Amino acid sequence: MSLLNAQGIEKTFRNGDEETRVLKGIDMTLEAGELVALLGQSGSGKSTLLSIVGLLLRPTNGQLEINGERVDNLSERRRAHFRNEKLGFVFQFHHLLPDFTALENVAFPAAAPAGGISRKMRDRAAELLTRVGLEERIDFPATRLSGGQKQRVAIARALMNAPDLIIADEPTGNLDRESADTVLELMREVNRETGATFLICTHDPGVAERCTRRLTLADGVLESDDRGGAQRGE
Length: 234
Ligand code: ADP
Ligand code: MG
Known about the structure:
Blueprint lengths: L3 E12 L2 E13 L4 E5 L6 H8 L7 E6 L2 E2 L5 H11 E4 L11 H13 L4 H13 L15 H13 L5 E5 L7 H18 L2 E5 L3 H4 L4 E6 L2 E6 L8
Parallel strand pairs: 3-8, 3-9, 6-7, 7-8
Antiparallel strand pairs: 1-2, 1-4, 4-5, 9-10
Helix pairs in contact: 3-4, 3-5, 4-5, 5-6
The structure holds adenosine-5'-diphosphate (ADP) and magnesium ion.
């Protein structure tokens, strides 16, 4: 069974009389443990596709299964639950809560639905922050971290609920070369260690070539699927 199976995904945005047909029938299967780069020109629909896969946006047409469960037609409540339990998100801009510490930000995906932060959540968040090399910054306010450090906190946060699929939209787009390398290396290590599947939208050829697979979006369809290059366990 595949981790993700998308069939005939279409998305058309409507604003008044204006229609923008962005996705025109995407068929995509991701196997568990893949580290996949999603490429394509600006405006090709990468973020739209990630939002659909991340259950943040509904497709106009098509079917989506994650872990064998049909998810495109879930109720709002069940979508939110599925998103929180099974998916992790990393965006170009970290979206950390500025008044929270690094640890509180990481624990948030578990603490928010529970209505508070437990000892177990604190331990898990501290462990994840140590994993991303920020053990010295656990109690720092988010505002006092560098750009690369914030993005590492965002990765730790994405891992908090041990998701099956991590969706990253231009995660290195706002970083200098060195921080970008650190962040990508971290995602590669987490992928190898935990077997979590990654779908990473990127403009950066350096990121794409270190993924195990590259999908390219053009004219609303997937134009190429390249599994050469870097391999897991390399
Ligand atoms: P990418 O991430 O590849 O740069 P996007 O998925 O952000 O592309 O956008 C693809 C196209 O869809 C663009 O032409 C964009 O303007 C359009 N689009 C995205 N979101 C909306 C929206 N909510 N309403 C109308 N058009 C949108
Ligand atoms: Mg985008």
